[in-house]
Each structure stands twice: as structure tokens, then as C-alpha cells.
Amino acid sequence: PAPGRLPDLGLWVRETSIDPMFDTDGTTELASSWGSGLCFWPARGTYVMVDNAGAIGEVNIEGTLVRKTTLSGFGDVEDVCCVDSAAGTFAICSEDQKIHVITLPVTSAWSGIVQGGAGWVRTITTAIAAQSNLGFESITWDAANSRFIVVNQDVNPSGNHAFWSVGSVSPYTETLLFRVEHTMLTDYINGLALTPEGTFLVI
């Protein structure tokens, strides 16, 4: 491909159907749920998925469910990102504009993760104003600067999407990074990733 352009995704991305809400026997454990976030776990070569009904699962590159457990007390979970691959540290963001840092056992079985209890590390409550459908939709980890980058799904009253930096240690400094006009994206934002080169991929 030409410099600065992504290759045709169809040439190198494998089409795989992944539904962590279903057991291997095809029976569903949650009556109604959609996968809402996905990230890669380098230490295990697998993916971690969350949904907005309170579940988190690990799937392999074949799309097979490896492990799954529940998320309790985290509200409407929208996305997940890997913070420390070797330690199993992840962060999830919720619709109420909070960031929750959690740990997942790297090799042993998972048990329920509870806010303020098992598997929970800390919750960052941001002061970024929430409005109708303007809760956090996606989160990514900026390892070079030890910070989270979050974005809202919908546009603010000024007609643009705001991208924010949130510090990972107290006092969790919040900084507006930039705004993107809605006309440039034409739709809601559903995903965000930071490349090794420091550029953003937005879905």
C-alpha cells in the first residue's frame, strides 16, 4: 500500500465469528447481550471481550471461548484495553464516564470481578461532563505517556467528538487532546486504538 494508507483489510484480517456469550454447546447464558469492546492480550495471544450486560471473556484467534466471568457493579461497560499484558492488568470504561482498572489471572481460572472487591484495582471517576448518549464509548492505553485515551460515542452540542487524556495515577489529570468534527466521521464512534506510531485508529 501507499505510505500512510492501510492495506486492504480483507487481505490480512481473518473473518471470524466470535460470540463469548455462548457456551461451546450453543446455549446462551445471557438472554440479551452484544459484545461492546475488544482488545488483544499479547502475553497470551488471545482477545479479551466485554459486553454491556456484565460479562468479560477471553477468546482465541479461532474465535473459541477460553474463559469467561461476570463483571458486577461496573454499570454499562463499553470497551476494554490492555494496560500490562504480563500482569493481566486491563481497564474498562463505562457509559457513566468512569474508568475501572481490573486484573485478570493470566493462567488460572477466572472468578467474578466485583467493583471494590475481587479483581478490582481502582475506579477513576472523571469530571468530563456527561450528556445524552455522550458517555464513554471507547478507551485505549497510551503506554508511552502512562495515560488512558477515551472518546464519547456521540457528538457534543458543538457538533464534534472530543478525545480526552486521563492520567493513570492520582490526581488523574484530565486533558482535552483534540476535537474531530462529526462531518469528518459521518457516524457514531464505536472504537479507538493507538498505534505504535502514535496515531489513532477510529471506528
What does the model show?
The chain is mainly beta. The protein contains two helices and 15 strands. Residues about 1-15 and about 20-30 have low confidence and may be disordered.
Give a quick set of tags describing it.
44% strand; 15 strands; 4% helix; 2 helices; globular; four-stranded antiparallel sheet; 203 residues; five-stranded mixed sheet
Question: How would you summarize this macromolecular structure in one to three sentences?
Answer:
The chain has helices at residues 9-12, 182-185; strands at 35-41, 46-51, 55-59, 65-72, 77-84, 89-94, 98-103, 113-114, 120-125, 136-142, 147-152, 160-167, 174-181, 192-194, 200-202. The chain is mainly beta.
Query: Radius of gyration in whole Å, from Cα?
Result: 17 Å
**Cα shape:** globular
**End-to-end Cα distance:** 20 Å
Helix content: under 10%
What's the helix count?
2
Strand order of the largest sheet: 1-2-3-4-8
Number of strands: 15
Category from helices, strands and their pairing = mainly beta
Proportion in β-strands? 35-45%
As residue ranges, the low-confidence spans are 1-15, 22-32
Mean pLDDT level: 78
The H-and-E topology, N to C, reads as HEEEEEEEEEEEEEHEE
For the sheet with most strands, the description reads: 5 strands, mixed
